[in-house]
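Hey L., structure's done. Input below.
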Amino acid sequence: MRVVIDLSEDDLDHFRAAMRRAKEAAAHLTPDQITAAAQQLLDDTQGVQAPEFVTVRMKRLGTLINMVHDTNWGISDEERKEILSALTYFADPQDAIPDTIPVLGFLDDAIMIELVVEELKHEIDAYEDFCAFRARAAEEQGAVEASELSRNDWLEQRQQELLDRMRSRRSRDRASYGGGGGFSLFTVR
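Output:
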């Protein structure tokens, strides 16, 4: 069975208001307390028969928590504040649907995670790419060496991949301009 939820602008305003209330309620919390509350929500969904919609979003919540704590990722203070701000909703025990209601209890949390993920999708995509880079390095070099890899190492590797792709395309294009010697408007003397 498939259920589709279309949120109108009024519906989104409801979630924005809930986020504002949660931020006000969590203003006194430390970053560790905010991430601990989000982690508690994540832990509470383990072992519970939750819909796939919820479990998929909870994994994304785990990614957000990891982004804050992963020292090798090295996010800026501004990025950290943005993610922590998003996580404050999960520190509010008074969410829209009490988590104790079977099946539906985590639905509001999953919707909020989806909204947060949509807003931070580029940061999340980059972090997941970094994690994949680190996992490949662990397979190739060993876990100890991979655990030392940083965001700068990942960026250097990405830059090298882009340069290699550019050079490959240039070589391919030159070869297609009339044969083996290629064609170029430029000559080096």
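Residues 9-132 form one domain. The radius of gyration is 23 Å.

-- N.
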